[in-house]
Fold these 2 entries.
Entry 1:
Amino acid sequence: MTRIERFNAAPPALDKSQIEAVPDEWDRSGLPAWAYTSEEQLELERAILFRRHWQLAGHVSNAPEPGDYFCFDVAGERAIIVRGKDNQIRAFHNVCRHRGSRVVVNETGTCGSALVCPFHGWSFNLDGTLRTVVQPRAVPKLDPVEHGLVPVEFEVWHGFVFVRFQPGPQPAVADILARHEAEIALYRSSEAEPIGGSFWSQQIGSNWKCVRDVDNEGYHVPMAHPGLQDLYGHTYFDEPWQDGTTRSFASLRDESIRLWSVRAYNNILPEIDYLPESHRRAWLYIGMFPNLVLYFYPDSMGFYQEYPLATCQTVIRSSSYAIPLSDHGDATFNRRIRASQYLSQRIDSDTSAEDVQLTVWSNEAAHSSGFQGFILSDLEYGVKQYHDQLRAVMPVLRQSEPPESGRLESINNKLLGGQQ
Ligand code: FES
Ligand SMILES: [Fe+2]
């Protein structure tokens, strides 16, 4: 059976009776093309979305020992998350108080008992306070707290570390994700440790919103993701967005599996005794506005996110975690779980490569004079709901034509004022 035959033979992935959020009539046209190409729009997104909304920086296990740290840069901001001598996680701007250099350069590492700036050598304690300056007689007396590293707001939720560079409209992460709390707690993510290295990232030639557009619907799965289709086929279900989060759930199939990696995964995945029956053979995704997906598989868990470098340049960043093998059963079980992790990551990396291609094509469309907007299906209602959230904080996106040069931000502010 070819991909096209398989796609056409597929029953609808969505039972409309389950999706009361999809009305009979709705605007199926998506965001205007200019939203994907405008430099001014991107600047607005940096200010309104990426600096003022929670961003997942990593997991507590990315800094397991005192002195360990990891970094997260977005929209011109840079954060360092460091574990202190008291074992507490803290977050600071990775900006030296002397002349603003990065205090640590690597994405992850360990710094012993102090963070030493590579520019002139000022050092900071793990709690952020200023420790020493070089040639102190050449520098006025500085207060260690007042002249310490500037804290960044952060929150640890089930082991995941979120940062927010500026105050914004979202409530606490725990409140945003409260409706998923009980389900995510099943996976014991606060006890998890990195697998397959620390962070993985890739730059792609596309606007960041094209990544989200592709990710916000499962309509393309039967056609574009043979691995996922084999893995869970039509059991995949996207729930509507609600209060800034969405949930997708799929159960593993056990028949008609063509790809060896999926067949092997299905055969080898052991029973995880701390998960309920309903989640032992299922893949779960929790999306959080504006740019995060947390995923939970029986064998592993993690996140992926995307953020812009330029209108047509985006970073996709991800990381995977799992409960340490020593917490599991015997050697056979551990071999099976390791193999399952390898296979689920392999299925994921194939899927990701397929999505990158779709994303790049979507981005190209926005630059074409032949592009006349989307015609979204009911199965892509999540794309529209996501765009609604963008339009709520950036109402300028309701304009079909790009605003006059230099006026986008002021028009947006005016529209925001009019909304209140
Ligand atoms: S900029 Fe850090 S010591 Fe000078
Ligand atoms: Fe996809």
Note: The first strand starts at residue 55 and ends at 59.
Entry 2:
Amino acid sequence: MQAETIVGKFGDKDESFGPSGFLELGGNTLVVDFGNILMSDTVVGFLYEDGHLKIMGASQKDSQELRVIDDLEACVFRGIDSRGLELVLPLTQEGGPTGDLYYNEIQYLVINGRVSTAEHELVGIMDDNLNLAVRDHYTRTPFRRVDENNMLSFYFDGATSAGKAIKKDFLKPLYRRDKPYFENEIIRYFQDFDKLGVQQKKYVLDSLGIWAKSGLLQVVRKSEGNCAMGNVKHGAAGVTRVRTGMVDLDAAEFDRDIDLFKRFGALASVSSPFPPHVEVRVNLVVSHEFGHQLQFCLSQASQDRIADLYQGRLTRSRRTNPAPNGYEGRSELLRPENVMSRLFISGYSATSKEEYWAEAVAAFSVPESRKILNDMDPAICQILTEILYHPEQHLSAVLVEPILDLQASLRAGKALPEDLLTC
Ligand SMILES: [Zn+2]
């Protein structure tokens, strides 16, 4: 019997979720190669990573029958799943519940505590108390426990390993089932979001979209605080309180930013008191203030790297774009012909390493200005990209496990898009 014919019979889709390792079956130790169970180089069956298997039998019907590993006596698999993560089947001695799980409205099958897709991809494990842990291929952690902080909407209906009917319907307080995770998180972060107008809502959702989808907004909010419309006395568009990390936005300035955003896009060149010099501004106050909160959550090493990038640019800026006579501010003011060759994404970025970072976060938040920032300052864009995809490289130590737990849960609920920066 040729392996190819078997693969063909089981279908290409199945093939991708076949594990590799050794299967103890009926006193024999068999090699499993990407799901194909081999006996002396002959394929005698197929094992899926969720513990389903097919054993070639006398008839076609026997060969197609789907069994579960728990039902075969003294049958144990040890090895790795289709993506190289450690796997032992059955997952536990005690077994677990069986039934239907809807996680973030995604349907999964649960068999003896193993949570999987219809294509037999193993997604997680659940015990008889319906505690869920999810596979994390990103950090190669076999299972990460999902707690109430990072659990998405959860609905299970089935029976425990002892055969007792069990049901659980969990939704985080204030969570709206009709809205996706990222929107729920933005609503939670931005106080009185419901009172905003249509245009304002869209602006806030666009500004914070990538941060919310990646889970960073949730982790940063828990660490630093949320964002409220207030009345910022000293006229800035927003302020992030250093001690509490809470953001206050000035209502009038917020509207002005939205108006500028609508008219000119994310970046605008505005006149300065020193004509013909102009100043570039980023019209994204919400993500700017979030940027300050995010900075408080970074490791010292990452903050030092940002400070170095800032110093390097400042030195070059002072040389190529010297301040006009009489100007005492610290913004980068530009002769009109130098706008395209400026050193900072905005004039305000030049004022301190904190504002340099916050303006970079702001510009990075929407595709239009992200592209310009990437051309102008690829090093800061690299840090920003790494924060989204590899947060453990930049977040302070205490936040690393929380963000990795959350991202694993979001992946299990298909709430974390792979292509965050292109959508
Ligand atoms: Zn600022």
Note: The CA atoms of residues 28 and 39 lie 9 Å apart.
